[in-house]
Amino acid sequence: MDRPELSLVVPVMNEAPIISELVQRSIAALRGISEQVEMILVDDGSSDDTLDRIKAECAKDQRVRFISLSRNFGHQMAITAGLDHAQGNCVVIMDGDLQDPPELIPELYAKYKAGAQVVYAKRRSRQEEPFWKRWTANAFYRTLRAITQIDIPLDTGDFRLISRKVLLSLANMQERDRFLRGQIAWLGFKQDHVLFDRQGRRVGSPKYTIRRSFGLALAGIFSFSNLPLRLASLFGFVVSFIAFAIILYALWSMLVRGQVVTGWTSLIISTMFIGGIQLLCLGVIGEYINRISQEVKRRPMYVVDEVSEEEGPRV
Fold this sequence. Notes:
This protein has ten helices and eight strands. It is α/β, with parallel strands linked by helices and 315 residues long. It folds into two domains: 6-225 and 300-307, Spore Coat Polysaccharide Biosynthesis Protein SpsA, Chain A, CATH 3.90.550; 227-297.
């Protein structure tokens, strides 16, 4: 069997109302590239009839395949599952809420044919998104870029095209705490971008809640920067210096001035300040230890419940 020219990987969860439109628009966009394409829909533990609608679309078009995970493993793991099963010469990653327009795929592919190994979709604007979400996203990516040595493109998500060479290199990165846009940037290779205006969600509710967004942000920071550990060390040094200065002042006041430093308020404030710094440092260390623990366990990143057909060669 010939290898598809392009694989489209789309993670979905509880997106039943738009599955039909998603598939139709995606296949229409891919048709202008090649007839040898595949679309892989990864059902990340949906609780509605998303999987049934996906199966109905697969029955209509053999280019459409699906992977159903045994439970909700998260957006990054669902993408990973799709990438592991993708067989194309290049792979496009796209969210399934249609905020990432499938019609942009031919432009990504054109940049790839021009020589780029990674082509990411850069947001010119983010329509109908609340101010706090735009502000926090901008602040996070600029902070991450400042504290790491990885050149992670600004104003981009996971919507991008990667060549098979990049895909094979990414498959060797088996960490459980996934931050794919950072991992792809870490790999390097020649990159290019396409600008687009991200549309607002028309149906359903966003799957990236504040909690999930915070978790993704922590994954990016702790996976690609040791700055939190260095800050913990710096805080410890500063607090120790302040405490030592207070001790010297207390001794000087008692021996030279003949006065004993008193004050319940200052004692409590100092104790709470030092205790807060210690807890903060322990929390930072705990985050790194937790990630080490997840790696040591070597549990699978995801579990597949059902696939649309016999599994082909993995990456």
